[in-house]
Amino acid sequence: MLPRLNALLVCAAASAFLSFAPAAQSAEVTAAQKKEAAALFKQGEAAFKKNDFSGAATAFEAANDIAPHPAALFNAARAYERAGELAQAANLCARYLRDAPEGDKRRAKAMGMLAELRPKLGRITVIAVDADDITLDGGALALEETYVNPGDHQVAGRFGNRIARRKVNVVAGSLERVTLEPKKVESAATLDQGDEVAPEPEEPKDVEPESSGLSPTLFYVGLGATAVLAGATVWSGLDTNSARDDFDKNPSQDALDEGESKQSRTNLLLGTTAVVGVATGVIGAFFTDFSSKKTPKEPVEDEVSFKLRLAPGYFAVTGAF
Asked: What is the mean pLDDT of the chain?
């Protein structure tokens, strides 16, 4: 019963469209255009009867584009609703209620349809002062409040030769207000469709150039260690010679063992001093960046000090940084 009733409504609308069109159109719509619009309206009527609701919606909307008429607009909304394209149906309903005469008999039906669709859809309104070519998901905005399916959507507007874009997530039954501003935009010549607006660059900050080598501090530490080891080696050598003199004066096994121990210590210090000295020279010549100047965040002590404690049979090196 319901499909037959819908068909009867479409047939009645077709008759109203054909009879009302000459009085409703402006002088800019030619007779040929009116004839083409009437033919499209009949195509929409035939498609609706065959339950081809998407085809019917397309035909009715095309007829309205050529020769605007409340019947074509209302029927397109009705067909989109039956096709399951609820956002299109709601937007055409809203356009019908905005443009149709107050006494048009379809207004009550359109208001009822819109009331049923509103909880299932979201709405977007755009606030963009001095913006041109405002679009929603790439299409032009025809209404102050546009009905959309729940989910993510993109709003864009042109400010001179620049474009601002905003993404918005819409929930069913909600109204989202999107503001476009010319503050954060990119050149339209370099911004492709779907690109996001890049954030404004941060203010440049003073930074220190990166060092290309090791800190000179390591080299200076190496020099200090080499000097300490050299001093210890000299002391050890003198102590070894003293032990040898004692052995020559009073030969004994204990004196011999002590002399050999001191000789081994001296040899070890001599080798260690040579290794540290050569390593320090290589680091200073090839790996140290003496030109780097970095200011530490907190004051630090730059002085490196070493203390050498010598005593017969005792040797110690202490350092402080």
From this structure: 76
Would you state the pLDDT for residue 227? 83
Q: Which residues contact 176 (CB under 8 A, 6 or more apart)?
A: 122, 123, 124, 125, 168, 169, 170
**Which residues have C-beta within 8 Å of that of residue 125, sequence separation ≥ 6?**
144, 145, 146, 175, 176, 177, 178
Q: Whole-angstrom Cα distance, residue 233 to residue 317?
A: 12
Which residues are 32's β-sheet partners?
Answer: none
- Please say if the pLDDT value at position 11 is more than 70: no
Taking residue 18's Cβ as centre, other Cβ atoms within 10 Å add up to 16
pLDDT over 90 at 206, yes or no = no
Nearest to 97, CA basis, from 85, 84, 113: 113
pLDDT score of 24 more than 80: no
Better-scored residue on pLDDT, 189 or 162: 162
Residue 315 phi, psi dihedral angles, 5° rounding: -145, 130
Q: What is the C-alpha radius of gyration for the chain, rounded to an integer number of angstroms?
A: 46
Three-state secondary structure along 132-178?
EEEEECCEECCCCCEEECCEEEEEEEEECCEEEEEEEEECCCCEEEE
Contact 69, 17 (CB under 8 A): yes
- Cα-based distances in Å from 312 to 3, 89, 216: 118, 104, 36
Give the span between the Cα atoms of 140 and 179, in whole angstroms. 16
Res 180: pLDDT: 87
Tell me the HSE value of 271 on the side-chain side, using a 13 A CA sphere.
5
Mean pLDDT value across residues 234-245: 80
20 or 271, which is more confident? 271
pLDDT at residue 190 above 50?
A: no
- Please give the Cα distance from 316 to 221 (Å, whole number): 17
Residues 321, 301 contacting (CB under 8 angstroms) = yes
